Amino acid sequence: MTEFSWPIRVYYEDTDAGGIVYYANYLKFLERARTEWLRSLGIEQDTWLAHNIGFVVRHVELDLLRPAKFNDELRVSVVVERLKRASVEFTQQVLNQHGTVICQAQIKAACVHLGEAGSAVRAVPMPTEIIEVLKRAS
User: Fold this and answer.
1) Cα–Cα distance for residue pair 54/113, rounded to 1 Å
2) E strands of 11-138, at which residues?
3) pLDDT at 121 over 90
4) How many angstroms separate the CA atoms of 7 and 97, rounded?
5) Across residues 54-65, what is the average pLDDT?
6) Does the pLDDT of residue 116 top 80, yes or no?
7) 58-92: string of b/e by CB count within 10 Å (b at 16+)?
8) Antiparallel, parallel or unpaired: β 4-9 and 53-64
9) Over residues 33-37, mean pLDDT
10) CB–CB of 110/56 below 8 Å?
11) Which superkingdom heads the taxonomic lineage of this protein's source (predicted)?
12) Rounded to whole angstroms, how far apart are CA atoms 8 and 66?
């Protein structure tokens, strides 16, 4: 599948007292890139949320290779490794302004039905419209 890339600037709020990006914020950067990737394909998550369909991260492997610092300009990539009926597996990288990979991640996101208030969230097959868009994007 083709690679998608999204720019991120490191803000002061993303860093710890030493000016280094706090590790959990890489998860936010990865999430933003996946959201923008979906948007670039015409898949607006709020439209599907109105039908109680969403995606939840089921598994994450995160390898922090080098630190990012306040005011760095980063690029976050998204590559679909495996598309299944009810889940998508991604490889994502965060690169610094020099093109060096500073974070590598493997993400598995599952499609879920969110149900009504108080009911259980359950895994469901992705809507055909989403599957077709993702297949065309590969």
Assistant:
1) 7
2) 53-64, 73-83, 87-95, 101-113, 122-123
3) no
4) 10
5) 97
6) no
7) eeeebeeeeebebebebbbbbbbeeeeeebbbbbb
8) unpaired
9) 97
10) yes
11) Bacteria
12) 16
Q: What is the pLDDT of residue 8?
A: 98
User: In the chain, what are the domain boundaries?
Assistant: 4-136
Question: Which residues are registered as beta bridge partners of 86?
Answer: none
Tell me how far apart the alpha carbons of residues 93 and 100 are, in angstroms, rounded to a whole number: 10
pLDDT of residue 81: 95
State the fold for domain 4-136.
Thiol Ester Dehydrase; Chain A (3.10.129)
Q: Give tens-digit pLDDT for 77-100.
A: 999 999 999 999 999 999 999 999
In the prediction, which pLDDT does 33 show?
Answer: 98
For residue 14, indicate whether it is catalytic: no
Residue position matching structure tokens 């369909």: 53
Distance CA 97, CA 99 (A): 6
The two structure tokens encoding residue 120? 């259980």
Catalytic entry in 16, 46, 63, 72: 16
